[in-house]
Amino acid sequence: MQATSLLKIGTFALCVGLFGCERGVSFAGDVQPILLASCVSCHSKSGEGYAASGFSLEDYDGVMKGTKFGAVVVPNSSISSNLYRVIANKTDPAIQMPPQHETSLAEGRGYSLSEKQIEMIAAWIDQGAKNN
Q: Is the pTM here over 0.90, yes or no?
C-alpha cells in the first residue's frame, strides 16, 4: 500500500512540475494576457485581422464567437480548434498566426508565440475553454 501512495505522490509531483496541472488554466489570468500582448493589435475591431476575418481577440466572447467563417475554438479539443492550429503552425504557412512569412495572406508580420504560450492556450482549450 505504501508503494501505491508513493507512486501517486510521485506522479502528482511530476505532473505539477512538468505541466503545471495543480490548477486549471484561466482565460483571464493565463490566456488573455498572451492574446492581448501578441494578437490584439491585429485582431481588435480596428485591426487588419478583424477586417479580414471578423475575429476579435479583445475578450472571451470574441474568441468564442470566432470568425465570420465560424467558430475557431472547439472546447475540450485543441487539435480540432483552428485557433490552436494556426498559432502552433499546423496549417498552411499562408494562414499561420501571427503572419511571419512573405507568403502570408496578412500584411502585418509578427513573431511566433513561445512553445509555453502555445501549450497554455492548448491546455485552456483542452480544459473546456472556460470563461474563468
A: no
